[in-house]
Protein 1
Amino acid sequence: MHKDIPVPANAKLIESAAYSDHPTQSRSETYELKHIGGEQGLYPPEDYFQKLHEVGWTELKEERMGHVHVLNKGDVRIAIEIREDTFQIFLLHSDQDRHQNLG
């Protein structure tokens, strides 16, 4: 989806989607990875978020919404939704893209 987003080696891609008319999302990928989020997805995988941080991603904690974590690297924004045995990565439209789409 994006070369700078690390994905655990043992994660299995189960769905990929593109959103041409969604106001904030441009693409997403859903992966299966046993026990990534703990019971009911309540425990975010600290080691995965540490790896994201090491390669330059910064979590925007003020934008976190429950299971959804928003991260930024340069002009790229992503959201990662953590569930019990799956996680989904969303590539978000940039502010410039959103302004163009809103006219």
Protein 2
Amino acid sequence: MTSTRKTTKRTETFTDEERAAMKERARELKTSARRSSRADKAAEEEAAVVAKIAEMQDSDRVMAERIHAVVKASAPDLAPKLWYGMPAYAKDGKVVCFFQSAQKFNARYATFGFNDKANLDEGTMWPTAFALTKLTAADEARIGELVKRAAG
């Protein structure tokens, strides 16, 4: 079975990009298990996030760098880490929010999203992911507010 996208071949269930992300996650878990002290682990995980951001295409890289700075300033207790090869920010080892570059899954736009660990519940329906084509100062302020709330 083939996908409608030219660059993506489908197997029975997962695209090539999805399988690559799962392999990245397995490598992340193996690397994490080998680290020694908590401080060493935190420093290595942040360095891995910064390195992953540096690999991104220009427009995604610029957004990811800004989001990294906004998240660190808004919720310094969230720990940067790689999650399926994406920059993510965790509390007590559980991912709260993440940045997915457009190139990750050959998407039209980058995504900033929240997992169920995020404290964003509001009524019976609330957004958990946002499409990003660029970041304005207002967008950064909104992300900062959401991250503070999510980490709380």
Protein 3
Amino acid sequence: MRVLRAQLGTDLSNIAALTHRVLAGTYTGTLPEVEHLARTLRIAGIASVAVGR
């Protein structure tokens, strides 16, 4: 949650829903945006991958 808040600039009231979307694989954005987020999560020790559709 801390990484998502820092990277996406969201507040505490939205972070739970956003975390659920990321974990469920339904978070969307441009491939560079999502890859940047995935890379940041990996640096924080959280396994993640960006998938293009």
Protein 4
Amino acid sequence: MVTRREAAQILDIPLEMAHRHGIPPRLSEAELGELLDNPPAWLVQSKANRTGKRPVWVQLTCAVCGFSEAARPKKWWPEFTYVCCLHHEAREIPVLGPGLVRSVYDGVGSRFAGIVDAAVPEA
């Protein structure tokens, strides 16, 4: 059995769309296979309307412990160098390279901080 959330990830659609179009809370592998093999018109249209600029789902994986989860990317997310669980200490995060400055963004996924290491702007 596959959950609605897992089905949405596999179909590459938002969870809200899966709910709106009647995908049940749990469905069998065969039912999911049928949706993939013979997509309904709404799913075909959804894929045709994609601009391709931002993915529907991203896989977040902690750079320290390897915990991973799928999440919907937010518009405010920059391109992260690393993501790590909020409970890790700063000394556990990979070392900042020379000539770089680090920015940390809390509230990424359900339990992550996003880290961006960027070149120091020249004055």
